[in-house]
Amino acid sequence: MFLSDTSNLSSQMGENFSDLPVGVSLHGLSKIYGDKAAIENLNVSFYEGHVTSLLGHNGAGKTTTMSLLTGLFVPTSGTIEVYGRDMQEDVDAVRKDMGVCMQYDVLFDHMTTKEHLLLYGQIKAPHWSNRDLREQVRTILEETGMYAHRHKRVGTLSGGMKRKLSISIAFIGGSRLVVLDEPTTGVDPCSRRSIWDICVLSERTIIMSTHHLDEAEVLSDRIAFLERGGLKCCGSPLYLKDKLGQGYKLTLTKKAITSTQFQDGSCDVCLGMGLGHYHTVPTAIISLSCHFTFFFSF
Ligand SMILES: Nc1ncnc2c1ncn2[C@@H]1O[C@H](COP(=O)(O)OP(=O)(O)OP(=O)(O)O)[C@@H](O)[C@H]1O
Hints:
Layout: E1 22-33, E2 36-47, E3 51-55, H1 62-69, E4 77-82, E5 85-86, H2 91-96, E6 98-101, H3 113-124, H4 130-143, H5 159-171, E7 177-181, H6 189-200, E8 205-209, H7 213-219, E9 222-227, E10 230-235, H8 237-244, E11 249-253, H9 259-263, E12 270-272, E13 278-280, E14 285-290, E15 293-297
Parallel strand pairs: 3-8, 3-9, 6-7, 7-8
Antiparallel strand pairs: 1-2, 1-4, 4-5, 9-10, 11-15, 12-13, 14-15
Helix pairs in contact: 3-4, 5-6
C-alpha cells in the first residue's frame, strides 16, 4: 500500500498537532549494541489523547524503542522527555506516570482478576484512599467487560481475558503514559476487537507497537513507521494513505468465470457495502490472472 521512497516524509510534516499537549518527546535517540545501531537519531513526539502505533518490519527497532521508553534500557545518546521530565534524570517520577503492558502476560495464576487490579493500583497510587482505588477498579472492570470475571482466578481465564487484564493493569493508578508492546499477540480476532475497545477509551498518551496494519489503522490517531532504526514516516492513517497510498488491490477466486469474461467486460468488479448493497468499481483493472484467481488494482 505504501511507496518505497518516503524519505521526504521522514518527519511529521504536513499535519499540525501543535495545539495538542505533548506527552512524550524523543530527541535524537540512539541505541547501539556493539557495532550495530538498533535505533539511530530518532526524533518524534507523542501527544496526549492520541494512540500512536509503532510499525515496522522485524528488526526495525520497535522493541528497542519500547524498552528505552519504559526505562528498561539506557539510550546510547539522545533524550526522552515524559511530560516535561527527563527520563534518565528522573526515572522514578516518570514511572509513576507510566503504565506498561509487555508482550507476554506477567500474572499470578492463584490471584483473581480484581485482586490483580487492587494490588497494582496500590503499588502505582499508594496515596489513593481505599475507596477511590476500589472505585477505579470497578470502573475498569466494567469498561473492559471483565466485571463478571472479577472473582475468577487468573489461571482459569482464557488468553484473551489475560491480555485484557494485562492492559487494564497498565491503565490503573492514573497512568498518563501507557506503553503497550504488541497488545494483541496470540489473541483470536474476536478478543482482539474487545481489546481495541479498551485502548480507544482513553485520554492518555498511548504508545503501542504492533505488526498488524489493520490494528494500527483502526486504533491509531498517528502511525510512526520505523525502518532500520530510523523514522521512515509518521502521520495519521488518513494522511499517510492520502500521501503514500497506491490504491487498493483485490484478489478474487471464482470457479465458473474465465479470465476472458473479466477482460471483455462481461463481469464487473462489485464490492459488498453491507446490508445487501453492492457497488460497482468501474476503475478496477485486472493486473494479473492465474488459473481462477484474478488480481485487480483500483
Ligand atoms: N540485545 C541485543 N544485542 C544486539 N543486537 C540487538 C539486541 N536487541 C536488538 N538487537 C538488534 O537491534 C535491531 C532492532 O531490534 P528490535 O528487537 O528493536 O526490532 P523490532 O522492530 O522490535 O523487531 P521484531 O518485530 O522482530 O520484534 C535488530 O537488528 C536486532 O538484531
